[in-house]
Amino acid sequence: MTRGQSLHLTAAAAAELGRQAAVAGTPGLMHLDLIGGGCERWTLRLRPGHLAGVPVARADGVTVYAPQQQLELLAGLSLDYRGDLSGGGFLVRPGEGQRSCACGASFGPAQRGGTPTQ
Question: Which superfamily, per CATH, for 8-106?
Answer without folding.
Answer: HesB-like domain (2.60.300.12)
